[in-house]
Amino acid sequence: MPEEQRKHPGFDAVLAYDRQSHWYTKERGPLMQFPAEWLGVPVNTLAGSAAILLLVAAADALLRWIVRRKVRRDRRAATAAASTAAERERLEWLDQALMASVPPLEVLIWVVGAAAALSPLLPIVTPPSLAPAAVILLTWSRDLGAMAALFWLLVRLSRVADAALTSLAGRTANAWDDALLPLAGKAARVLLPILALILGVQTLSIPADWQGVLGTALSLVLIGAMAFLLYLCIDATESLVLQRYRVDARDNLEARTIYTQITVLKKIAVTVVVIFTIGSMLMVFESVRQFGTSILASAGIAGIIIGFAAQRSIATLLAGFQIAITQPIRLDDVVIVENEWGRIEDITLTYVTVRIWDQRRLIVPITYFLEQPFQNWTRTSADILGTVFLYVDYSAPLDAIRAELDRILSESPHWDGRVKVLQATEAREHTLQIRALASAADASLAWDLRCEIREKLVQFLQRQHPDSLPRMRAELAARGGSPGEHRER
Question: What's the pTM?
């Protein structure tokens, strides 16, 4: 048979090809006339690409139909009378995961399908010199699109998993899962997208020059993610330990002890993680690794030099660790530092913040509390004795003042009921010093109690015994008496 003629498969017809009109015409048989090319592209190639796109559209529609049907079925099952709350919630989160996965899967289907449909057309529609580059570009586009779709899918699924685990932690009565389940959800949100990047890069046809760059970048991302997860573990451990202790309780000595230890140890652990993370990231680079090897060769001399140069810094860090163990101060301790009354607000590895009573902040080096004396009013307990000194005349009725003190304390909300004493502590030349002693649950209440006692006792003396207030008296001798007879008291 001539080249211009061919027998059409499946039909009893012989086709003749007209090179000018690009049409096949029948010579024999019932076959109708049809074109061999359209816009320079063979019809069978166009038909194959169109068929692939139709299959992609059908797969997209089928995916949507399956998900909608599954969601409707789960909703009917959740509304059934026999379903439990746990079953309804499981179906709800499963449906959310399915709906979250639909858009990325659609993108993945269309990316792969479009690449399959265009791959036979590119060598035909592009010039011969550009055909290899076009094929490479199409392959790269397909791989990058698939990797982006996979990354998007895992990001959306990780968000659903995080929300589900957080919701589950809030419904259970256990204390440990309030910290561990949210930690697992955050870990999923970090690790799953990184896993998508690692798997996607493995499928790319990367030139040799770029493989090292991408490998280094992925290593840095993975090290950073692991450091972030370690920080989350430290934070979850802190929350798990501290949730059993309340600093705002009245007797909070044990809570403040635990809070101080955990706070300082957490800062030490975070510092160690940051140092090792930076070191691990630097060791990824070959030049830095070689430099580190050369430094290790002279580690003895370098260690001595660094030790002398940073001895104060090292001493400060050791002081922070020592305070965490021995605890001369704790968080929320009431202290007198540099003649200032305040509370310990924060303890770092290098300094301590003291919140002064008038809202000022006193920043003190942490070594101060190991080298200098200071007052700690809550070292063993938070309760404290408050003192009030009054100066009265020698004629003041002490029993009446003592009874008034008992009445004031019985009506005061600041007194804790442990101690109440009124004593004459000193007899001066012109006045008598009396001291009122009363107890309170903490230093703040003791201050308010002292002010209350002082005000009300003075008011009592002014109202009931004004002659008992301090005054200067003089007795003059009769007229004509000698000057030596003048007496003053």
Answer: 0.51
**Residue 474 and residue 476: Cα distance in Å, rounded?**
7
- Edge-to-edge strand list for the sheet holding 34-35: 5-7, 14-18, 23-28, 34-35
Q: CA 254, CA 275: separation in Å to the nearest integer?
A: 32
Alpha-carbon gap, residue 236 to 229, rounded angstroms: 10
d(CA 193, CA 158): 8
CA distance 388 to 440: 13
3-state secondary structure of 335: strand
Q: How would you classify residue 256: left for phi > 0, otherwise alpha for psi between -120 and 50, otherwise beta?
A: alpha
Find all residues with CB under 8 Å of 139, minimum gap 6, and list them. Answer: 115, 205
Cα 58 from Cα 53, distance rounded (Å): 8
DSSP-assigned letters across all residues of 129-170: TTHHHHHHHHHHHHHHHHHHHHHHHHHHHHHHHHHHHHHHHH
426: enclosing H helix or E strand: strand 420-427
Measured CA to CA, the distance from residue 337 to residue 369 in angstroms comes to 9
Residue 387's H or E segment, with its range, is strand 384-392
What phi, psi does 448 have (nearest 5°)? -65, -40
Q: What is the pLDDT of residues 272-300, one digit of tens each?
A: 888 888 877 777 777 666 665 555 455 45
Q: Which two tokens stand for residue 27?
A: 């010579």
Read off the pLDDT of residues 190-206 as tens digits, 9 standing for 90 and up: 777 787 777 777 666 66
The Cα–Cα gap between 275 and 285 comes to 16
CB 33 within 8 A of CB 26: yes
DSSP 58-83: HHHHHHHHHHHHHHHHHHHHHHSTT-
CA neighbor of 406 nearest in space, from 425, 419, 392, 389: 419
Q: What is the DSSP letter of 28?
A: E
Closest Cα partner for 263 from 312, 333, 180?
A: 333
Residue segments in the chain with a per-residue pLDDT below the cut of 50: 1-15, 21-22, 24, 26-34, 296, 299, 483, 485-489
Q: Which of 360, 396, 402, 397 is nearest to 469 (CA)?
A: 396
